[in-house]
Amino acid sequence: MIVDDSSVARAVISRMVGADPEFEVVAMAGSAIEALDALKTVSVDIVLLDVEMPGGSGLEALPHIIRAGAGARVLVVSSMAEDGAEVAVRALAQGAADTLPKPGANAFSGRFSEVLADKIRRIGRANREPAAAEAVETRPLKLRDMPAAPLRCVALGASTGGLHALLEFLRALPEPIGAPILVTQHLPATFMPYFARQLEAASGRIARVAEDGETPQADFILVAPGDSHLCVQRAGALVQVKLEKGKAPSGCLPSVDPMLASVADAYGESGLGIMMSGMGRDGLIGSRRMVERGGAMLAQDQQTASIWGMPRAVAEAGLASAVLPPQQLARRVAMRAEAASWR
């Protein structure tokens, strides 16, 4: 479904999408209200949503469209996704699977068409096939015991759909837990200050983009810059942030793998990693290192993850101590922190 108040944009995007044999445009709407009405009778996998529309902001309607879509994923296509990075982060925070800057009305090009098609493929179909879902859900997952060591660092990794999960986790996480919180989310560098503000508002904790050489502090949130991996290194009793730009196995920058691997080396059994929604397998290598060093991994469950790729890789590799929704993962972290504090 294409939702845009511009008839020109709807027509051009429709031609672009329809030109690919993998896709079919099943509905178009000129406003969020029209989209909600259409979703009562039309089943869609992906909604391409503009956020600047008369009669109701696409951002305000986004959560309602997600609910009405019954599993459909939303790709925000808007000029504000580039010029106003804060809008894009707000969209991701409210559950959008991804965002894409829309060129001017007279600047639609072949390059935009290629990027749009790639985004749609990556987001994939809505999860409405019970048989396929059951095949994954009934596959036994081997869970590991949670270490009993004091909790010294929590490292969260996420990609597509992960921002919404991160906010749910942080809202449910009680304060204090007595450990710094590191976050690697696949986002461009220009998004990161806005992203940190979203995390701060949701958690009630101080959140900022990490700086090289600083010392992680208990209950502070440090966010990986968009152009560097967020790592830590230990020198005696001191742990400091080390920002790295080297190529990661996943090809992502920032990547979850270097963060988790460095936390494993610096904190050992006192490190805890959490894998949230995201496509691919970034973080799997770092998760193995975390477990090898005596630490623990948790993973978001399939039912709540927009894209159960990154958490699935960790869960099916037998590296997770729990596979749960974000709020329950937060409770598990709180229990670990509280139990350790009594020892």
UniProtKB/TrEMBL annotation:
<dbReference type="GO" id="GO:0006935">
    <property type="term" value="P:chemotaxis"/>
</dbReference>
<dbReference type="GO" id="GO:0008168">
    <property type="term" value="F:methyltransferase activity"/>
</dbReference>
<keyword id="KW-0808">Transferase</keyword>
<dbReference type="GO" id="GO:0000156">
    <property type="term" value="F:phosphorelay response regulator activity"/>
</dbReference>
<feature type="modified residue" description="4-aspartylphosphate">
    <location>
        <position position="50"/>
    </location>
</feature>
<dbReference type="InterPro" id="IPR011006">
    <property type="entry name" value="CheY-like_superfamily"/>
</dbReference>
<dbReference type="Pfam" id="PF01339">
    <property type="entry name" value="CheB_methylest"/>
</dbReference>
<keyword id="KW-0597">Phosphoprotein</keyword>
<dbReference type="InterPro" id="IPR035909">
    <property type="entry name" value="CheB_C"/>
</dbReference>
<dbReference type="InterPro" id="IPR001789">
    <property type="entry name" value="Sig_transdc_resp-reg_receiver"/>
</dbReference>
<keyword id="KW-0145">Chemotaxis</keyword>
<feature type="active site">
    <location>
        <position position="282"/>
    </location>
</feature>
<dbReference type="GO" id="GO:0032259">
    <property type="term" value="P:methylation"/>
</dbReference>
<feature type="active site">
    <location>
        <position position="159"/>
    </location>
</feature>
<protein>
    <recommendedName>
        <fullName>protein-glutamate methylesterase</fullName>
        <ecNumber>3.1.1.61</ecNumber>
    </recommendedName>
</protein>
<dbReference type="Pfam" id="PF00072">
    <property type="entry name" value="Response_reg"/>
</dbReference>
<feature type="domain" description="Response regulatory">
    <location>
        <begin position="1"/>
        <end position="117"/>
    </location>
</feature>
<keyword id="KW-0489">Methyltransferase</keyword>
<feature type="active site">
    <location>
        <position position="186"/>
    </location>
</feature>
<dbReference type="GO" id="GO:0008984">
    <property type="term" value="F:protein-glutamate methylesterase activity"/>
</dbReference>
<dbReference type="InterPro" id="IPR000673">
    <property type="entry name" value="Sig_transdc_resp-reg_Me-estase"/>
</dbReference>
<feature type="domain" description="CheB-type methylesterase">
    <location>
        <begin position="147"/>
        <end position="340"/>
    </location>
</feature>
<dbReference type="InterPro" id="IPR008248">
    <property type="entry name" value="CheB-like"/>
</dbReference>
<keyword id="KW-0378">Hydrolase</keyword>
<dbReference type="GO" id="GO:0005737">
    <property type="term" value="C:cytoplasm"/>
</dbReference>
